[in-house]
Amino acid sequence: MQVGTLIRIATAVAVLGILLPTAAAAQVSHAQAKAEVEARDAKKHNKLKTEGVPTATGAVAGGVTGGPAGAFAGAKMGHAAGVGIHAIKKHHDIKEVEKHGTPPPRTLHRTSTVHRTSTVRRTSTVRRRTAYRRHTLR
Question: Which residues are within 8 A (CB) of 51 and not within 5 positions of it... i.e. 6 or more apart?
Fold first, then answer.
């Protein structure tokens, strides 16, 4: 084999090694992953949602069944459940960030693609409403 061919092959392998993502590049330290997850959770109010909703639900359920004392007990039980849920979710998210790196932002999928800027009524709607008014005014 000629030296020029070996240089070309070595260059191609080096370029591919640089361009292709490796599994080691996606891994993040535990401290960095924890900081990323906590920052994202604080931005999205995830702790408030995962702990607050069960607390409020427990308070309402306890209040309905046992009055004020039941509401207090239900709120405490709901909060304890919410703390557990949040801890499990946070642990899972940290492990995912450690393994795969920071996830890309999720895109929102709109259910309706039609966006009307003005309140223009369709001709059929105008006719139907006019006919209804004529019928009811007689």
Answer: 79, 82, 83, 85, 86
